[in-house]
Amino acid sequence: MYSESKEITATDWWALGDTPVRRDSRVTYYVDGQATFMEMCLCFMRATRSIYLANWGMEPDMLLVRGEDLLPEQPEQNARATYIEGLRAQGLQEADINFWLTHRLSVKEVLAYALSKGVEVKVLLWKAKKAFAVYDPQAAHDKLTEMGITCLLDDSAEGILHHQIESLHQKVTVVDNEIAFVGGLDPLIEKEDDFDRWDTPEHPFDTPLRRTKSGKSPHGWHDTHAKITGLAAGDVALNFRQRWNDLIARHHLEQLHIPEQPMPAPVESQSIVQIARTVPKHTYSFDKEAILGITQLYDHAFTNAQQSIYLENQYFWQRAYYGVDISLLGRDSAEMEEHIGQIIEALRRGVTMSIILPDHPNVGRAFSDAALMRLRNEAPEAVKESRLHAFCLATSHFKMEDGLLHYRPIYVHSKAAIIDDTWSTVGSGNLNNRGMHDDTEINVATLDSFLAHGLRLLLQAEHIGLLKPEELAAASRLYREQNLDTQARALAEKAFQQMEEALHDPFQAVQLMRQRAEENLQRYKEREPLVGHLLPYLTAEEAAQHNLNVREDHGWIEEPDAH
After folding, report:
1. Whole-prediction pTM value?
2. How many domains does the chain have?
3. Could you tell me which residues come within 8 angstroms of residue 517 by beta carbon, excluding any fewer than 6 positions away?
C-alpha cells in the first residue's frame, strides 16, 4: 500500500514502572469522530459479555451514528439489501440489524440494547465540579440509570490533596475484555450546545447532522482515537477495573466489585505497543506514588527524534495555567520544561517539527504562544531553514443571507505525536502540566512505521485538502485494514499513491503545509474560500502584524455571528 516497514527496535522508547511493553497487540488509529464512534457502536452491538466506559464527560443522548452511515429513509431496494449485507459483514446478528434499522443509535439506547442481551454495562464518569464542568454529570448519571445501566460518578480527584481543577480525563472503552479504545474523544456534546465530538474529516461550517436542539451549529472538532486488541487491551481493562474497584471500595459498594479477569488472547502484529498513564499521587489507592508514564514516553520520543516531529495537541504550555491567561504568572511545569528543552535540542540537530493547535483553545492561548516563541528564539536556525511551523485549522462557508464568505475555527482536540514516521502515540494526555502530571490520563504508544507513516499522511492530507472526501474516506478504511470492494480498494490505493507522492518526505510535507497555510491566510484576508483547513497559528503579536484582531478566548479566526 505504501512504504515498507522499517527495521525498528524496542530500545529506549518506553515508560517504566506501570504497564508492560507488548509485542502481541494490534493498534488501529482513527481520525475524527465519525469513524471512531461508528466503530465503537459496532463493537457495542457485537458485545457478548461486558462493556465498560470511563469518560471525562458524556451525553447519553448523543448519536453515535449519523448521516451517510445510516440507511436512508426511502432507499432503493438494492441499496437497502447492500446496506444490510454490510452490517452482516460487520458481524451483526439479525436482531442487532433490526435494532440498528429501527432505533436511534444514541449512547444510552445502544448501551441499553446491549444490557437487554445480558451484557454487563458499567459507566464511570468524572464528577466534575459545576464551576469547571462542560456537562452535567448528575444528569448524565440519571439518564443512564433510568435505562438500567450501572453508572458511578468518580470523585477521586476531590479533597485537600488535589488542586481545584484536577480532572479525571481518561477516555476509555473496553468491550468483552478483548477490545479497548483510548484517545481524545468522549461521547459528548457540551451543555452550551457547542463542541459536539462527532464530526467528519470535512469539518463543515454548518450541517444538520451536528445542529443542536437550540439551533446552534457547533464548531468543527478534530480528534484522534485508537482501537486496541491483544494483551494491551487487557492493560486498558485493568486500568478500568483499578479505578472502578478503588471507587466502590471507598464508597462501600462492594456488591459492584469487578473481579480479576483473564488477559485477552495475543494477536499477531508487527507493532510494539505500550499503554501509558498519568495518575497523580493520592488519586487512587493503587498509585501510592504518582504514575507518570506519558511524560516518560515523550521524554524518549523527543530525545530519539532524528528527522521529524509531528504533533497535534489542544495545548502546548511550558507553564501551568490556573485561571489567569498570562504565561508569566503560571508556575513552572517540570515535565513540560523538560519536553520543550528536548524539542529545542532536536531542532538544533536538524529535526523538522510541525504542530497543529487550536486557534481558540478554551483556556491558555497565551501559554501556547509563549512556548512557541521559546522554540523560535532558542532554535533560530530551524526557523530560518523552515523546519519549525505551527498551524491551526478553520473552515469557510458562503452565506446567502449576506452574500459573504464566513470563517470559523475548527477545535483541535487531538493528542497525537509521530516521531520519524516510526513511533506514534494517541491518547488523552495533553502537552501541558495537566496531561503530563496533574490529571488522570491514558495513551497508547506504538513502534510501527506502517502505523506512524500512514497516520501522518492521513492527517496532513485532511488538513491541506489534498484528496476529495470520498478518496480520503476510502484511504482511511484501507489504512484501518477494513474490507473494501474492488472499486473502493482501487480508489483507496490511488489515493494513497497520491499522498505518498505529495507527502512522503516529512520536510517536503511541512513545506506543502506551510504553502497551503499561507495561501489560506491570504484567502481569509480577501474573503475567499479556504482550500483544506490549514492556516498558520498566529501568536497575538503575529496576528497584530497582519492587522488581525486577536481575543484570547476566541483567537483571530472567530466571527461574532459564526453561529
Report:
1. 0.95
2. 1
3. 389, 391, 534, 535, 536
